[in-house]
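Self-study notes.
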Amino acid sequence: MDVLNGTDSPSYTPCFVVDYNFEVVQEFIVRIYHSDGRSPPRDLDKHTMIGGATFHLAALMRSPSQRIIDSFQNGCGVLHVHAESLSSTRDNFVTAFSAQKLVNKEGFFSKSDPFLLISRQNEDGRWSVVWRSQHVDNNLNPVWPECKIPIALLCNGDIDRPVKIEIFDFERSGKHVFMGQVETNVRLLLQARGQPMPVVEPEQQAKKKNYVNSGVLLARSPSIEKNATFADFIAGGCEISLSVAIDFTSSNGDPHSPTSLHFSDPTGALNCYERAIASVGEVLRPYDADNMYPVYGFGAKIRLADGSLSPCQHCFPVYPGGLEVHGIEGILQAYRDAKTAVTFFGPTLFAPLIRATTEKVAAMGCSQEHQKYVILLVLTDGVINDLELTKQAIIDASHQPLSIIIVGVGAADFSEMHELDSDDALLSAGGKTAVRDIVQFVA
């Protein structure tokens, strides 16, 4: 959600990516609210609705220039919506912007607080805002932090597409003051290699014969950061390996009880864990190079050679020596063998399992010439007793060629699993942040 202050003609920065399915009716409802200035934007009950409009994605996609203009249902405004098919590139444009000798818009006793607003030109000649920087206080020679702007957002994969970089003097009222602009494209920014680009105020340029510029803008060390897709890695010969880990903690219930998630139905019907293994395993199976899988358990006591029970094991191979099994049927058989041989216990700890897998992945000898990647499939009932330690283990694992798919089995509260699946922001814990999102939760 974007909140813009002091304007009755807002142009919102966020771009929304949606899947267009021509065979499905996809209706969108847009509502505009007046912010009370205190409450979080998502607390809509605290704000006053100005108006709203409804449109179908199909109508937007087939309209001229893929743009629609629709009046608010209460007649208190007009909504402009523009759509465009998104390119598949995952690359980023990386640079650190700075400016020099900007014209002050604050008078004699203060200096402007500049920020950048970047827009890309649409096919109909209009401009769409795609990115905004932080403002720099009281500075006519501002230096902004390094930024990474997705190429798909900046120019939709076309580096010759016109891009406009506007500079504004930040005002808390929201009525920001225009300081000048640079019209360019990604190719020219790369070619400029940090050379100054004149900042122009078109009105001043038209009025003054001797007008030169209103300062200069620099894009320091510009580059394109390449981010290969999963398909690129597969096509390049990357070896994918799947490891499976199964939750044998007592929170799943007594496996002899019909209420247990591990209960073996006398009719032969698959239980919850077996269905999850079969369905998710079948999806991942084609990506594994040799169709051989190591299978682990966690949260149970295992029988030792002398017949006694071990302390609770939080990561143990189902078969001695980590023997791998063949195919999905092999995983199912390993699961059935394990659940009759172990004693369900607890607590449910994920960190030891993730750290053991991370160590194994780090020892694979993965390199640019020998690319390898591991997918850890974790099947669990939703209870987790070491959330913070698990977060730290995931953050450390994010440096390795590893992804974790957590499958929620049963109908428990999986809110903590959603917390590990950091789609909105990279996972942080213990003063560290993951370098990428490696967890996907499926219920």
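Second protein, same conventions, sequence then structure:
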Amino acid sequence: MKDLCRDLCKHIVPALSSTLHKGQAGRIGIIGGCEEYTGAPYFAGISALRLGADLVHVMCTPSAAIPIKSYCPDLMVMPILCKDKAPQFNNWVKRLHCVVIGPGLGRDVE
């Protein structure tokens, strides 16, 4: 079972090469994080980095941005989960390879 899992992962994860540029081995977006829940998007993002993603963007509410950024400077924290930044949000999502939706979003309607 262990060998099967390893072989499957080898086919999914791109091989690292000196010819790759930043972001070509994975651009991940984490959509989550609010004032009360800042740990969940951090753990999702740091897990993606540890598994080999090049760039991890955490898109959160403005009140969650500073705490998340203070946990880890390797995460690109973008406080764009608010109504007035919807066009900026749409532009960023188009650039990503994968999106994780929900860690730490909370239940607030905003």
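Instructor comment on the second fold: The first strand starts at residue 27 and ends at 31.
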